[in-house]
Design goal:
InterPro entries: MIEAP, MIEAP_C. Helices cover about 70% and strands about 5% of the residues. It is mainly alpha-helical and about 475 residues long. A hairpin with a 2-residue loop joins strand 4 and strand 5.
Length: about 475
């Protein structure tokens, strides 16, 4: 008991209770109702702690005094205190009534709360439905946006393709225009050269006529009459005629070599822009050369027939009609319709089974090259001994005195795989070497290519009899000499 009393004395519960009572008294009118209730409950808790300790001391003291010790004291002191418990019961009943009123108010408020809750739930469900619809609209908008992007990208690609196609067409048109301008300039220059040649020829004829006029006073009128009967009589001696033929032949051979060295490379570079296969490009140029010689020879035959038909009724003189016809053709090479030959060559190349080309490429790109070869080939037919290209066929035996190999050829291959440039011949003798590619197995490749073609391989550069003759007889090294290319 002494220990319990000492702990109660040493504890600060009573002092804290007194301080809180003083503070509550000071702030009672300032605090709210909830704060005052909280303070009251806190003081009751402190008071209950103190009462618990006092009841402990009371029970210990009563046990120490015996069974009847202090009974009178407890009765005298606690009975009046117990009588005061009735107001406490009334407060308890008030508290119960308060709880009942709270329960009643809660029951009254619960339906309104449920109604509000149901209203909020309905609003929440409608909001969720709207949210789902908005999400669906958003997905549809995204899909439409993706479709629009795809269509825009497709349209942009199509526009870029059209732009590239238009640029390619513009470039091709510019190249064609440049080629036409170049051809027209070359035609003008050629016409100027021809006019200059004609002026020189007319000047020579004028001098000849003057000399004849001076010789007309000689006592031999018969000779004068025989010379003046033919309007196409030549004043040159046989030696000078041979020199003229030889000089024309040398000039034509030189021009043939220039076409190989310059014009052929220009045409090859032009075709490589559209055809990546170099072998096919070389085949196209070779076939164009062969077809040009064929077209020029046919045009020469027709032109010679027309000139012979025109001059034969009025021919009189010591010279033969053939010499007069050739002389007239040499003096009027500009009357040759080279464009018709170019069109024939392009038509023949379009149906040739050995070559292929993209659909956007037209052989008119190399019309300038074809025109030059046709002119040279036509002029070569006016020589006393016409020049022609050698007969060629894929898979033929390679001759060192007829062809020279390309840099990418197989040096030990005995057969020609394909030709790059034809050899130039005078009768059966090689005067300018050609160029060919030699590969092993060239014969089988040529047989397969011939079996695939629907029409027989054209060999227009020479007749069958001449072809067999040229194949059976090897070219003579005496006339071939050093190659001119």
């Amino acid at each position: 008991m002494a220990d319990t009393l000492r702990r109660l004395t040493n504890s600060e519960t009573c002092r804290i209770l007194q301080e809180k009572l003083g503070d509550w008294f000071k702030d009672y009118h300032i605090n709210s109702c909830d704060n005052n209730l909280n303070m009251c409950c806190e003081l009751l808790e402190l008071n209950s702690k103190i009462q618990g300790q006092l009841f402990t001391i009371l029970s210990v003291t009563a046990r120490e005094g015996g069974q009847y010790a202090g009974v009178e004291t407890i009765k005298r002191r606690f009975l009046p205190w117990l009588e005061t418990c009735f107001p406490i019961s009334s407060s308890v009943s008030d508290t119960c009534l308060l709880h009942e009123s709270w329960d009643r108010s809660l029951r009254d408020l619960s339906p309104s709360h449920e109604r509000k809750l149901s209203r909020v739930e309905s609003q929440l469900s409608s909001t969720r439905i709207e949210l789902n619809s908005l999400r669906q609209e958003l997905l549809e908008s995204q899909m439409e946006l993706e479709d629009t992007k795809t269509k825009s990208a497709t349209t942009l690609l199509a526009t870029e393709e059209e732009i590239l196609q238009l640029r390619a067409e513009l470039r091709a048109a510019k190249e064609k225009l440049e080629l036409r301008e170049f051809d027209s300039i070359e035609d003008y220059e050629r016409q100027i050269r021809l006019m200059k040649d004609e002026i020189s020829i007319l000047s020579a004829e004028k001098e000849t006529l003057k000399s004849r006029l001076s010789r007309s006073r000689s006592p031999s009128p018969l000779r004068h009459t025989s010379r003046s009967t033919s309007p196409f009589a030549r004043s040159e001696s046989p030696t000078s005629a041979k020199l003229t033929n030889a000089s024309r032949q040398s000039r034509l051979i030189s021009r043939f070599n220039d076409i190989y060295a310059n014009d052929r490379l220009d045409a090859q570079n032009l075709l490589i822009r559209y055809i990546e296969d170099v072998e096919m490009v070389q085949r196209i140029i070779f076939i164009a050369t062969v077809e040009s010689f064929h077209a020029a020879k046919m045009a020469f035959k027709q032109f010679r027939l027309r000139v012979r038909k025109t001059l034969s009724p009025s021919h009189m003189g010591p010279e033969t009609l053939e010499d007069v016809v050739i002389d007239y053709i040499v003096r009027n090479l500009d009357l040759y319709d080279v464009q018709s030959s170019v069109n024939e060559v392009i038509s023949a190349m379009n149906v040739n089974p050995k070559i292929s080309f993209p659909p956007e490429v037209d052989f008119i790109l190399i019309s300038g090259f074809i025109r030059e070869v046709c002119r040279v080939a036509f002029a070569m037919q006016t020589l006393e001994t016409p020049l022609d290209i050698a007969f060629t066929v894929d898979g033929e035996l390679f001759y060192d005195n007829k062809y020279r190999r390309t840099y990418d050829s197989e040096l030990t291959a005995p057969l020609v795989f394909y030709h790059v440039w034809p050899a130039l011949m005078e009768n059966d003798f090689i005067i300018v070497k050609g160029e060919a590619v030699t590969r092993r197995g060239a014969l089988w490749s040529s047989v397969r290519s011939r079996s695939r073609s629907a029409s027989p391989v054209r060999a227009r550069s020479a007749s069958p009899g001449r072809a067999l003759k040229s194949r059976s007889r090897s070219p003579s090294p005496r006339r071939s000499g050093t190659p001119r290319i």
